[in-house]
Amino acid sequence: MARVVVEIMPKPEILDPQGKAVAGALPRLGFTGFASVRQGKRFELEVEGEATEEVLAAARKAAAEVLSNPVIEDVVSVHVAPVAQED
Prior knowledge:
Part of the FGAM synthase complex composed of 1 PurL, 1 PurQ and 2 PurS subunits. By secondary structure, the protein is of the alpha+beta class. 31% of the residues lie in helices and 28% in strands. It is built from 2 helices and 3 strands; from the N terminus they run βαβαβ. It is flat, with a radius of gyration of 16 Å. 7% of the residues are buried.
């Protein structure tokens, strides 16, 4: 079974109040040196079988039409997740 990861971020011109809140909290919690924060979304889609080009194309279409709001968000990545190493 494969996993396809879709990452979505707010468009640069869109305000990101959650990112601003996190950026404000980081220094108070001892994490310094970060100039800004933008918060996005990550979806993990499990695929029956292999993640073929057809599967990736379907995931890109779902990302553009269902998982994101194209007015305020950009789909920044659709890729196959690396297989976890079993110990």
